[in-house]
């Protein structure tokens, strides 16, 4: 989603702002802009589309000055035009904003009653105009910003820059993350630590409701009640990490290839060298709960769908599951003996965070599975389990998905152990299966050339169906989502058994049907459904293992063969062809793989 950056530097700010915005490109955006103070005067440059358009503009119309703010916008209110791009400004203040100001209509009316008109379609402009109104009423900048923030409803991360105030930025957060960066005689603001990676690794995260007055001498923070507070300064290793593609054409390709390594790192964290499960202490007591609620959005939701099978089949623990945007408003009762688990790569997903807060309000024990351990979701949880995937830059999640599955799998085994629903030998075998995963995924990656070849055919299709049964049904859902996200081909997933209840009407020779079926206990059932497709002229791509290929390969359009694996963990391995097919289809179609249209990486608005 939107990226925010602020600089109080000792050199020209514009190049630093543009570079930092470049580090935020991965979040997805449709326009960009910066404002600086040149000898105390506010100047703004904004451009629609990629950051390069803004850079080009700056070549012809440079902005000078050592203080500035910048923004990459993912439009929520108003089309992605130059007028709607941030920073928004009044005569003496400029503002960048991430989030949604929900009472912007009322604010507009208030401004209009005073003869102040708006000139954009955004909610954000009202923030700049309101602050300007307070400045016009002779409030000093710090007070004008505080008074403005007090009037806002909704979610925001904000950064204000004032004319004639080259040593001041005001930053505030409610519902959207914001970080302060500490330099040597310089200070920074960023919507995440990655934005500031080239500027500093010393970061202070603002808490919910905080307002920060930033000067080159440091930062003074006030909490939601206006009390001065101290927030810890941390060294963030990840921020310094080079955000580069390591020789790959796209971040997505790099992140797919990284999976054996990051899964091995996660295994090292969650299993002892002797192969026992090692969860952080104190861990959840699975014998004290009768139900587990799993909540997430998008790909993380499909990881939860897989985990439901694991918790129910292996640990005999009833699981309720929902997408966060529905869960948060559904007012579900949460029985006393229950826990709720939230999965989010960024740990900032707005709907998931709101769902977590609802469950917490109901008294449930809160667990989370996140990649960013400093995130709001991690901090609001009783137990936060890191997936240790490293920075994921591609908008389409890949390594975070498989790492989420690995952590959820280890947790399900732990639940089974505690609840006595698994015997020693079976537990040891499944643990062995988990340990084998990095090697198997490494082998699995060798199907890339085949996936690339098959994808040339898929790229011609207008619609594609994915089928899976049991634990593979969520993988079919994930495969369809991945393909839609980056290739823009319409794809749907169905539980194989559901096909004949409607969607089979779609099947003809133009609709490829991708069947995900390892040779497991449900293989024969899935193969029957596959035969039903082929009997109607359907063109089947079967993804299976050697045994499955031998039995059911005849008559299919294509077969992709993966190594054999403990069927329990097959969803983790079968994520690889789902990712590779989506990736190569998108490449064949020439779409923007890492920053697909309309999508954002960390969805911080609801
Ligand atoms: N509502 C603002 C900012 C949008 C946003 O935060 N996206 O992530 C706008 O539409 O400009």
UniProtKB/TrEMBL annotation:
Catalytic activity: D-fructose 6-phosphate + L-glutamine = D-glucosamine 6-phosphate + L-glutamate
Residues in coiled coil: none
Domain Glutamine amidotransferase type-2: 2-217
GO terms of molecular function: carbohydrate derivative binding; glutamine-fructose-6-phosphate transaminase (isomerizing) activity
CC terms in the record's Gene Ontology section: cytosol
Domain SIS, residue spans: 282-421, 454-596
InterPro entries: GATase_2_dom, GFAT, GFAT_N, GlmS/AgaS_SIS, GlmS/FrlB_SIS, Ntn_hydrolases_N, SIS_dom, SIS_dom_sf
Active site: 2, 601
Compartment(s) where it occurs, according to its Swiss-Prot or TrEMBL record: Cytoplasm
Group of enzyme by EC: transferase
Keywords annotated in UniProt: Aminotransferase, Cytoplasm, Glutamine amidotransferase, Repeat, Transferase
One Pfam family hit: GATase_6
UniProt-listed Enzyme Commission number(s): 2.6.1.16
Example GO BP: carbohydrate metabolic process
Subunit architecture: Homodimer.
Free-text function comment from the UniProt entry: Catalyzes the first step in hexosamine metabolism, converting fructose-6P into glucosamine-6P using glutamine as a nitrogen source.
UniProt-recorded name of the protein: Glutamine--fructose-6-phosphate aminotransferase [isomerizing]
Source organism of this protein record: Limimaricola litoreus
Lineage: Bacteria, Pseudomonadati, Pseudomonadota, Alphaproteobacteria, Rhodobacterales
Gene from which this protein is expressed: glmS
């Amino acid at each position: 989603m939107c990226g925010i950056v602020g600089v109080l530097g000792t050199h020209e700010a514009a190049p630093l702002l543009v570079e930092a915005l470049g580090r935020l490109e991965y979040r997805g955006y449709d326009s960009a802009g910066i404002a600086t103070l040149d000898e105390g005067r506010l100047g703004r440059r904004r451009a629609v589309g990629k950051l390069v358009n803004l850079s080009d503009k700056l070549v012809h119309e440079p902005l000078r000055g050592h203080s500035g703010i910048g923004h990459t916008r993912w439009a929520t209110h108003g089309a992605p035009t130059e007028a709607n791009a941030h920073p928004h400004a009044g005569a003496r203040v400029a503002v960048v904003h991430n989030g949604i100001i929900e009472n912007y209509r009322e604010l507009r009316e208030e401004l209009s009653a005073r003869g102040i008109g708006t000139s954009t379609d955004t909610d954000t402009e009202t923030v700049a105009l309101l602050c300007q109104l307070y400045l016009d009423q002779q409030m000093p900048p710090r007070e004008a910003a505080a008074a403005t923030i007090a009037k806002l409803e909704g979610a925001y991360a904000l950064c204000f820059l004032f004319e004639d105030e080259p040593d001041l930025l005001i930053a505030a957060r409610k519902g959207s993350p914001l970080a302060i960066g500490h330099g040597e005689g310089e200070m920074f603001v960023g919507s995440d630590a990655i934005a500031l990676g080239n500027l500093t690794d010393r970061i202070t995260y603002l808490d919910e409701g905080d307002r920060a007055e930033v000067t080159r001498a440091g930062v003074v923070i006030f909490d939601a009640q206006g009390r001065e507070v101290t927030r810890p300064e941390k060294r963030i290793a990840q921020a310094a990490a080079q955000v580069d593609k390591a020789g790959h054409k796209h971040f997505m390709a790099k992140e797919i290839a990284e999976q054996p390594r990051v899964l091995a790192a996660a295994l090292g964290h969650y299993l002892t060298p002797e192969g026992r499960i090692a969860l952080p202490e104190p861990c959840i007591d699975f014998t004290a709960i009768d139900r587990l609620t799993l909540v997430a959005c998008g790909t993380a939701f499909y990881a939860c769908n897989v985990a439901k099978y694991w918790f129910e089949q292996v640990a005999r623990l009833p699981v309720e599951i929902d997408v966060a945007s529905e869960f948060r408003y559904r007012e579900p009762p949460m029985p006393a003996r229950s826990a709720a688990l939230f999965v989010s790569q960024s740990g900032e997903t707005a709907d998931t965070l709101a769902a977590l807060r609802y469950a917490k309000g109901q008294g449930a024990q809160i667990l989370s599975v996140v990649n960013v351990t400093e995130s709001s979701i991690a901090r609001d949880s009783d137990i936060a389990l890191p997936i240790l995937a490293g920075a994921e830059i591609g908008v389409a999640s890949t390594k975070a998905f498989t790492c989420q599955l690995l952590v959820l799998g280890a947790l399900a085994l732990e639940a089974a152990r505690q609840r006595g629903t698994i015997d020693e030998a079976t537990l040891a075998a499944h643990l062995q299966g988990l340990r084998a995963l990095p090697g198997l995924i490494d082998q699995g990656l060798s199907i890339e050339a085949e996936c690339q070849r098959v994808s040339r055919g898929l790229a011609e299709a207008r619609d594609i169906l994915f089928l899976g049964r049991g634990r593979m049904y969520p993988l079919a859902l994930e495969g369809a989502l991945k393909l839609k996200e980056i290739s823009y081909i319409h794809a749907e997933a169905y539980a194989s058994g559901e096909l004949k209840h409607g969607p089979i009407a779609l099947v003809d020779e133009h609709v490829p049907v991708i069947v995900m079926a390892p040779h497991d206990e449900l293989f024969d059932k899935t193969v029957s459904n596959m035969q039903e497709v082929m009997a109607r002229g359907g063109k089947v791509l079967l993804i299976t293992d050697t045994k499955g290929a031998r039995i059911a390969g005849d008559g299919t359009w294509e077969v992709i063969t993966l190594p054999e694996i403990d069927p329990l963990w097959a969803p983790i391995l079968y994520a690889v062809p789902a990712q590779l097919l989506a990736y190569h289809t998108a490449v064949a179609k020439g779409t923007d793989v890492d920053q697909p249209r309309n999508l954002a990486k960390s969805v911080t608005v609801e």
